[in-house]
Specification:
The chain is an alpha/beta fold. It is about 30% helix and about 15% strand. The strands form 3 sheets. Strands 1-2-3-4 form a 4-stranded parallel β-sheet. Strands 5-6 form a two-stranded parallel sheet. Strands 7-8 form a two-stranded parallel ribbon. Helix 2 links the parallel strand 3 and strand 4. Helix 1 packs parallel to helix 2.
Length: about 180
Amino acid sequence: MGRVDVSVLRRFKSWHVMVVNCTFRVVPWADVLYAGDLQWWTRYGAEAAAFEGEKWTRDETAAVRYGLRRVVRRDGRGLCREHAAVHTGGNSGFQAVNLAYHFGARRIVLLGFDMHRRDGGHWHGEHEGMLSAPATHIEVWKREFAVMAADLREEGIRVVNATEGSDLRCFPQASLVEALKC
């Protein structure tokens, strides 16, 4: 994460910014915070309460307990086209991309979607006190994203992965500035 200057996001005012999980610490001015799991909200909900943008989850208990907006979880692969519902893909980043689709995004830039365990895990650091995904889970996630990528292309939605060193290869890759310009 330290390699990326996220302040560049503010230069592109036409873009809406959604952060996933602990990335709200890095981009506290984002428009939306998404975290799918009750466990994450239980651990970070008090800290995330100060986040001023919209807060979303797919977990019913978390939505009630923390006053969050909620999308419904549906079983399935790829992009969930049902209004206000997401497929999980096994991770909150996948769900956030599905939510961006429901928000009407026609272009999506991914940042922090490294999809590997090198350099200590998550791009924003490990979730304190929580089990982080082993490499075997990440391999499954990449396969799920590949299915979603095909669905998004079919819908005419352009997705670019601006995560330096990412192992998620189903989307075109570019630097953050180049991705935001496209």
